[in-house]
Amino acid sequence: MFKKNPTSLRLTLRALGYLLSYPDAQLRSVMPQLVDALRSEGALTSERMSEIEAVCQHLAALDPLEVEARYVDNFDRGRQTSLHLFEHVHGDSRDRGPALIDLMQTYEKAGLQFNADELPDHLPVVLEFASTQPPEVAKEFLGEMAHILNALFSALVARNSPYASVIAAVLEVSGQRVQSVALTPEPPMDEVWAEPEAFGGCSTQGQAKPDQPQPVHFVRTPRAERAAEGVSV
């Protein structure tokens, strides 16, 4: 099935970004308009458009609290499905900070001032920025993130999440191939957020030879040596 070659992706990218935002009452109330916007630009294939319409109908049919709970379960419980794109690459390492700064500078060089409650690598923010650019520039920009988007798509498919169709639409409108990729297993959330045991530092876990006797070295300080010699301290 062929699709039109749109002269603009502004409405499409903004609509997809909005669909990936927290599904509050405002978002649920404008879903018909989002579908109309996607249809008007014709950037998606008819098959993908049908999937997006099904997602909107599914979200609209659920109880509002259920919709919000499922959103949190999809995107806030695990790194594999995080909408913060650099978390997939850098995690919590120091490299993420410079990457975020570089992304903000990209926004500024385009003449835009970043002002949002989210971090600049949050996918809805990224899509809103891309929507301000000419189609070819937007496609190139999003294409650089295709490996992250395919990993996110694959993780959502594994969870049977309808949001996988929205990520697939982002890839498709960017001119990228939608494909499943192998995912690195991540520890359960209860392990990630677990508080360390009291006095856990006395454990051999994390040492060079865990579960083996470890030598303990005591070093006498000058103060202790003077005290042992009977010198007043």
Question: Could you describe the 3D structure shown?
Answer:
The protein is mainly α. The protein is built from 13 helices and no strands. α4 packs antiparallel against α11. The longest helix has 16 residues, at 46-61. The radius of gyration is 25 Å and the shape is globular. It starts with 9 loop residues before the first helix and ends in a 5-residue tail after the last helix. The mean pLDDT is 83.
C-alpha Rg, in Å? 25 Å
**Biggest beta-sheet profile:** none
Low-confidence stretches: none
Return the average pLDDT rounded to an integer.
Answer: 83
Short précis:
The protein is mainly α. 55% of the residues lie in helices and 0% in strands.
Pick out its properties:
mainly alpha, 13 helices, globular
How is the topology of this model organized?
Layout: H1 10-19, H2 25-29, H3 31-41, H4 46-61, H5 64-75, H6 85-90, H7 96-109, H8 123-131, H9 135-143, H10 146-158, H11 163-173, H12 189-192, H13 222-228
